[in-house]
Amino acid sequence: METIILAVVIAVVVLGALGGLLITSRLKKPLPPPPPSPPSKTDLTAPPAEPHVGDEAETPRDEQRRTIEEVDLPGGGAPTTVEEPPAAEKAPEIEIPEPSAGRLIRLRTRLSRSQNALGKGLLTLLSREHLDEDTWEEIEDTLLTADVGVQPTQELVERLRERVKVLGTRTPEELRGLLREELLKLVGTDMDREVKTEPESRKPGIVMVVGVNGTGKTTTTGKLARVLVADGRTVVLGAADTFRAAAADQLQTWGERVGAYTVRGPEAGDPASVAFDSVKEGKEMGVDVVLIDTAGRLHTKTGLMDELGKVKRVVEKHAPLDEVLLVLDATTGQNGLVQARVFSEVVDITGIVLTKLDGTAKGGIVIAVQNELGVPVKLIGLGEGPDDLAPFDPEAFVDALLGD
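Structure tokens predicted for Signal recognition particle receptor FtsY (404 residues):
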């Protein structure tokens, strides 16, 4: 009996333990989430703030919101500043060149600064009390050193001998007047020195500029354009020196400064073609003058001189040339005369332009080159300034040689 009771007690204990374990495991399971509570009235009337860029995942922020009455409407505030587009590049300003009339007289001081050694030397020698053979030889040497040339020197000395012998007493004023007269005869006052740019029966006038590189040929062409514009002419420039790109650029710059149009071709192109096109363009535009700058490589190369002759022939298919100006560097002396001879044989020079006459040049070159070619000096260059090219005036030139 006792055994049965013990067994029942053990069974009750075991059942109780199993029941406790089952209850504990149920208590450890998570409870289901409570149902959502209904929204309040406040939440319904206040709309959430709009998300900003990149703010979609953030909690909406409280922002101060404005009503439509508080927003500034267009027209009520300061005007909006609109940025103007950058201005286009301005064309170069057209310059007004100095009138050509009287230029040489205005530049007389600059000319006499380097030229009056000839005049002063002659006056000093002629003022000696006794003019013996040695003195006359010194006078000859002075003239030859000044690049006057052998034949003109002999002519001048012979005339001076005769007139001084007849004059007898020689005051400084008489000697100066005497020398001035004789120098004017040599320089020539009866030569036509006008640059021909106005043919009677047609338009435009055609001027070709030739010379050796380094004499200032391209610069002279540009300065001559300024002289013509200053005198009221319209000009087209032809950059026929196609062998130097810098020459075409330089000539175009000169043209732009005075409003002259420049015709140019491809580098190393045919110079005759550019010259032809320049005259054609000048005709179509109705300008007064066409200036053609040509190549100026060494004059000793026969092929290049033939090419210059070709340019002349091609241009004359349009119309005859009115001027062929040879540019000479006055400081080269007798070498300039050699150049003049060669060019004159090819293109029939009609006028001389002497450049750099304000430097170490000796004024006698004017007499020598005219005597050599029988062609007048028409223009002279007296400096680096744009308006330092002047029409040649024999009287002003001789006065500058003799000084004040």
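The CA atoms of residues 213 and 297 lie 6 Å apart.
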